[in-house]
Each structure stands twice: as structure tokens, then as C-alpha cells.
Design a protein that fits this description.
Shape: globular
Strand content: 25-35%
Number of helices: 2
Helix content: 10-25%
Radius of gyration: 13 Å
Strand order of the largest sheet: 3-4-5-8-7
Number of strands: 9
Order of helices and strands: EEEEEEHEEHE
Structural class: alpha+beta
Oligomer: single chain
């Protein structure tokens, strides 16, 4: 029986639709859920690198993109800002979290 936190079931992948990106590692879904990409850290939005990360992610996954969300098991309660911490995947391919690292727009942050 999945637990629901901030409107999201824990323990099973779910589809989410992008409303907008706040920065390179935080997205808001069309349901209003704030999702922080797990295990990565993108530069702060007020730096040139942070602005580049946001441009990259917005170009690849614009408003209306449908993604698969898997909530990070060790952070079921979310982060200190109330965001859902998760891995996001396109419908086919590797995680967006890994894509950002490979593109040089984020680093691992465990």
C-alpha cells in the first residue's frame, strides 16, 4: 500500500508533467508539486553556470513534457524546503539527473 506524500505515492514510478523549471535541478509539475532532482547539484540560478543549466533543462524538457518520477527512498519525507526528492526519467532513456551531469550542468551530490 503506497504512502502518499505531497500528492505523490512512494514506492512506484509515476508520470508527472512539467509546468516550469525553477533552476537546473528543481521543477514544478502541473499539479504544483516541487521536485528536487536527487543526488545532483546544479549551480545556483544567479550564476552564469546556473542560468546555462536552466536553459539546457528547459530546452530538453519544456513545459508539457511528460516524465517518469521515482521518489528517492531515503528521502520519502522530502527535503528541508518541502520539495519531493526524486529521479526523473524521460519516457525512454537515462535519468535526467545523469543527463545533467554528463552535459556538465550538475555534479553528483550524495
Amino acid at each position: 500500500f503506497p504512502v502518499t506524500i505531497a500528492g505523490n505515492a512512494i514506492g512506484s514510478p509515476q508520470l508527472v508533467t512539467v509546468d516550469h523549471w525553477i533552476d537546473g535541478d528543481t521543477v514544478v509539475s502541473t499539479t504544483g508539486t516541487h521536485i528536487r532532482l536527487a543526488d545532483i547539484d546544479a549551480p545556483e540560478i544567479d550564476t552564469p553556470e546556473g542560468a546555462d543549466a536552466k536553459i539546457y533543462i528547459r530546452e530538453h524538457y519544456p513545459k508539457g513534457s511528460i516524465l517518469i518520477m521515482k521518489i528517492k527512498e531515503t528521502q520519502k519525507e522530502g527535503d528541508i524546503y518541502g520539495r519531493t526528492v526524486a529521479y526523473l526519467y524521460p519516457l525512454m532513456g537515462e535519468s535526467i539527473n545523469k543527463q545533467l551531469i554528463k552535459a556538465g550542468h550538475a555534479q553528483y551530490d550524495y
